[in-house]
Protein 1
Amino acid sequence: VFGLSSVAQVVLGRGDFGQHLSINLGFGIGVTLGIHAAGGISGAHLNAAITLTHCLLGNLPWRKLPAYLIGQFLGSFVAAATVFGLYYDALYDYTKGNFTVSGPNATASIFSTYPAPYVSLLGGFFTEFTATVMLLLGILIIHDEKNNEALKGTQALLTGILVLGIGLGMGMNTGYALNPSRDLPPRIFTAIAGWGMDVFTAGHHWWWIPVAAPVLGSLAGVIIHKLFIDLHNQPVLDSGNEKGQPVVQTS
C-alpha cells in the first residue's frame, strides 16, 4: 500500500506530489512496517523469492510454502485493490476512463513494474537479478550473528533503508521489482480492473522477468554470501581460545 500509493501520487499528480525519491521512500517505509508487523509471527516473509530460497536451502519446511505464498500474493493483490480505490477518481480524471499500459497517459506502471523503452529483455533480467542479489546480501549481512550484525531492534529499519538504496541506485531500468509477490498479483489485478491482457504482453512479454529473475538472484545472493563472507568468519571466542589468550570484546 505504501509503495503503490507513492507511485500513484507521483504519476497522477504529474510530478507535483513527489518524485523518484518519494517512491523509493514509500517502498522502504512499507518494508520496514511489514517486517515489524509480521516479524514475530512468521519471520516477515514478504518476498516469494526469499521464501522459496529458504525452502531450497532447508531452512523452511516445504509444507509451509503454500501458506506463505498465499499470504504474500493475497496481501499484494488487496494492496493493489486498495490503492485503486483510493485513487479511483484521480485515475479517471487522469485517463478519462481509458486505462492503458503504454502511451502518454499510461497508468499500469502504478501497480506493477515495466521496463524502460531502451531496456532489452536480457538487460532487464540482469538488472532484476543483480538488484535481488544485493537485496539478499544486505539482508544476510544485517542478520549475520557471526559477523558485525545490526543492533537488535534495528533490523527492520535497516532492511527498509536497504530497499531504499536499491531503488535509488538500480530503479531506473525496470522499477526494481525484486519480488514476484510484489509484482505479479497487482498485474493480475490490473488485468481484471480494466487494463486488460496488455499487462502481460507489454515490454515483449515482460511479466515473467520479475518472477524468474528475483528467484535466481536470491539463490545467487545466498551463495555469494556463503562463499565470500560466511565461510571465512571465525567467532571471536574460538579465535581467542586457539591462541590461549583471554577473550576481550571490543565495540
Protein 2
Amino acid sequence: MTEASVLFLRACLVVLAMPIYLLSFLGIWEPFCKKIFFPFFLDKVSIVHQRKSKKQKQELFRNLPDFTSPSGELRLLEIGTGCGTNFQFYPPGCKLTCTDINPNFQQSLLKNMSKNQHIHYEQFLVASGEDLHQVPSGSVDAVICTLVLCSVHDVNGTLKEVLRVLRPGGAFYFLEHVAANHSSWTYFWQQVCYPTWKLVFAGCCVTRETWKNLEQAKFSELKLQHISVALPCTPIKPHIIGYAVK
C-alpha cells in the first residue's frame, strides 16, 4: 500500500511540474536552472537555512584553528561554495580557495566576500567535487562541504578527492541533509518528492544516506551527529554534521 501511495503521489507531482518536465525534455530547463533559477533559489533558501542552522555552524567551525599547519597558515578549500554563506564562520587570516561546478553565483558570492574581509581569498575554481585536479595533493589544512554531497554525482569519488587534497592530520567539515529514518513520514515524503525534487533543484537527492559513505571512507577519525534543521514544508529536515580527520 505504501509503495502504491508513493507511486501515485509521485505521478501527481509530475503532473503539477509538467511544464518543467517538458522544458527538460526540450533541453531548455537544465541551462535555465543552472544560470538563473538555481542561483536565485539557493540565494533565498540559504538565508533561511543559515538562520535555522547558525548555532550548529558556529559550533562546528569553532575548532577550525586547531588544524592550522605547522607553518602557521590555515589553508581552507570549500567545495560547492555557492553564495559563500559559510564565510562568516572562518577564522581571521585564513587562506580560502573556493570551488563550485556552477560559476553563476557571482552576485551573491561577491556580496558575501565584501562582508567578510577577514579572509584572504586565494582563488575560485570551476570544478566538481569528484574532480579537484587543479588542487595539489596534501595542500590544504581543511576542506568544507555544506549542502553539496546531496547533489554530487559520486559521493565516494568526492570523499577520495577530499582525502587526496588534505594534508595528513587535516580535517573535512560537513553539514548535509540526508535520508530520514525509513519508518518515518518524512522518509515517505522524501520518496514521493525524490524524482521531481531532483529535476527541479539541479540534481539534489533527498534520500542519500551520506553518513554511510563517510563511515566507509578512509578517515582516521570521524565525529558525526544526526540533527534536525527546522525547514517547514520541505523533505530535507534530517541532517548530519561533524568533521573527519585524515
Protein 3
Amino acid sequence: MSEAYFPVGPGLGMEENFLSLDDILMSQEKLPGRAESALPRLALLLGQGAGSAESVPEGSKLEIPLWLAKGLHDSKRRIISVELPKIYKEAWRTVFSADANVVDLHKLGPYYYGFGSQLLNFENPENPEIAQTILQATGGGSVFPVSDSVCSLQTFIARFRRIMDSSQNAYNEDTSALVARLDELERALFQVGQKGLNDFQCWEKGQASQITASSLVQNYGKRKLTEVDG
C-alpha cells in the first residue's frame, strides 16, 4: 500500500531542500550568464549545440538553470559569471517600492522570494541591495506560520495585507482570479487563510467539534522545539 504524500517545505534562505517539490521546480529557473572559460561537453545541455561532445566557447552568453549555475560558479576559477534577472534589478526594485500590489509576480517569477534569496550565492555588485530587500523570516517576529520562508521586507509586507484580506473574504467563491498574480509562497499563504476561514465557518455552523491548529503551525512548532533541544 502506498503511503500518502506529505508536502515538504522549501529550504531556508540560500539553502535548498532537495526533498521539496517547490525547491526542485525553483532550481529549474534560468539565470542569464556568460562563459568565462570554455565549457567542454556542455553545449547540448546549455542549448549551445547539437552534440554531447561539443564545447561552449569562452565568452558565450548563456541561460543557465539555477542548479547548474550553482554547480559551475567558482569565484577563484571564473568558470561562469551570472547576471541578475531583470525583476531583481534596480528598476524593478523601484517599482516594488512605489506600489508592490500592481506587480504580477507569478508572471515575472513564480518563486520570486525563494529565487531571490538564491541569487545571494553569486557575486554581484548589487548583492547588498538585494540582501536589504530579501530577508529571512526566522519566525520569532514573523506574522505568518510558513516554514521559515524568505520574504521581501518591502514587497512582501506591501502585499501581505491584501493577500490575507482576500483570503478571509472569499468564502465558497472562485478564487482563481485572486491568486493568479501571486508567487508560490503567497499562494501558500492564501491557502492557509482560506483553510482558517473554512474551518471557522464549519465550527460556527456546528459542523466541527473544535477548531484545531493548522498543520503548518503544528509542524512549525515541532521544528522550533527540535532546534531548542538541539
